[in-house]
Write a structure and sequence with these properties.
The complex is a heterodimer of chains A (247) and B (107). The longest helix of chain A has 44 residues. Helix content of chain A is 77%, strand content 0%. The radius of gyration of chain A is 20 Å and the shape is globular. With 247 residues, chain A is mostly helical. Chain B has 2 domains: 31 residues; 63 residues, no CATH class. Helix content of chain B is 78%, strand content 4%. In chain B, strands 1-2 form a two-stranded antiparallel sheet. In chain B, a hairpin with a 2-residue loop joins strand 1 and strand 2. In chain B, helix 4 packs antiparallel against helix 5. Chain B starts with a helix and ends with a helix. The relative contact order of chain B is 0.06. The chains are: A mainly alpha (247), B mainly alpha (107).
């Protein structure tokens, strides 16, 4: 895709907005299901919608609602929410450098709007965007996801049990992750990271709280780092050489 | 569950979801990560995204789905489209269409 050059942070914001927009198709069925799960857990439409607006983390909301439905104690619900969201610790660490130019309230706002889609797209595009535009691109990418998420959980709660299940629309969720995954496979180590991460997560898919995803990610990262370092020696050896050479 | 319980859950989840997204990035402005960890962070997108994609193509209800699983073939078609055209809407559209076609022929 050839895009015209960006002239202002505003341009970067709208570029991010427009590039994430098609991926909101995957969010909508997920939001409908979450709205429905909220009803089953005994929440009313207002509580369900505000939950999405305040939490904005689909998988953890769904897990928490299932636990609330079965009458779990509050600490258990929160612990499950934390475990499901552990991948955000990795996302936040990985993207910290690219969001560093943001000051004041923009940084917590960007953190609040962090999802898989704007994270992966920003990691892919930051070199071409440059440090000035990258944080605005990220922020713009979070907005359509937020609107789609809050809106679709609200509609799911309103429609109740009338959401058709046979359409297979929920398959749009892995498809939108596929769109992000393919460009992340830049070289052999990243391909290895994906294969190991994907297969370990698949093997551990029946673990509770999506723990398999987190463990798989760690295994995949280890595989990528190992393969990269096997080819050219570990990063710390480079650093050692640099030190010996002096400034 | 009382309304108070519901709100405590919602507010607690909101705080957790914000903290895991915000604190790592702000702490990293003051501390530098070891280079091995920095190197590892570059593989976060590939490893996590694959963890979100693979189980949807390979499993059904938490079990290994085998080859007669329409999601697997529809997903492979979508991967090809994503790689060739780099277009989100087209990939999702073709993937869903392939799934419906495969289901309608009874796979």
């Amino acid at each position: 895709m050839v895009s015209p050059p960006l002239n202002s942070p505003k341009d970067a914001f709208w570029r991010g907005f427009l590039e994430v927009m098609p991926m909101t198709i995957g969010v909508i069925p997920f939001g409908l299901v979450t709205g429905l799960a909220g009803l089953k857990a005994g929440l009313n439409v207002l509580e369900i919608t505000l939950m999405s607006a305040l939490v904005f983390a689909g998988a953890s909301q769904l897990v928490a609602l299932q636990l609330m439905h079965s009458g779990a104690a509050i600490p258990l619900v929160l612990l499950a929410g934390l475990v499901v969201n552990l991948r955000y610790v990795m996302y936040s660490s990985a993207i910290a450098r690219h969001l560093a130019p943001f000051r004041g309230w923009l940084k917590p706002l960007a953190a609040f709007l962090m999802v898989d889609q704007n994270f992966a797209l920003t990691m892919e595009r930051h070199q071409r965007l440059g440090p000035r535009f990258t944080p605005w691109y990220f922020l713009g990418g979070g907005v359509p996801q937020y609107i789609a998420w809050v809106g679709s959980t609200y509609i799911g709660a309103l429609l109740g049990a009338r959401v058709p299940e046979g359409w297979g629309l929920e398959f749009a969720i892995p498809l939108s992750f596929m769109v992000l995954l393919i460009p992340a496979l830049r070289d052999r180590p990243s391909l290895a990271a994906a294969l190991v991460g994907g297969l370990v997560a698949t093997a551990l898919v029946s673990l509770p709280y999506r723990l398999g995803l987190f463990i798989g990610a760690l295994a995949g990262i280890a595989a990528g780092v190992w393969l990269e370092n096997r080819k050219r020696g570990p990063a710390w050896e480079d650093a050692l050489k640099e030190m010996k050479k002096g400034p | 569950m009382t309304p108070l319980d519901i709100w405590l859950n919602i507010l607690g989840l909101a705080l957790i979801a914000f903290a895991v997204r915000y604190y790592p990035m702000t702490l990293l402005e003051r501390f530098r990560l070891p280079s091995l960890v920095q190197q590892g962070l570059r593989y976060v997108p590939a490893a996590t995204l694959a963890g979100l994609v693979f189980p949807a193509l390979l499993t059904k209800n938490g079990q290994w789905a085998g080859l007669a699983h329409p999601e697997l073939w529809a997903g492979l078609v979508a991967a090809l489209v994503a790689w060739r055209f780099k277009n989100a809407l087209l990939t999702i559209g073709v993937g869903l269409l392939a799934l419906w076609l495969l289901r309608s022929v009874g796979l």
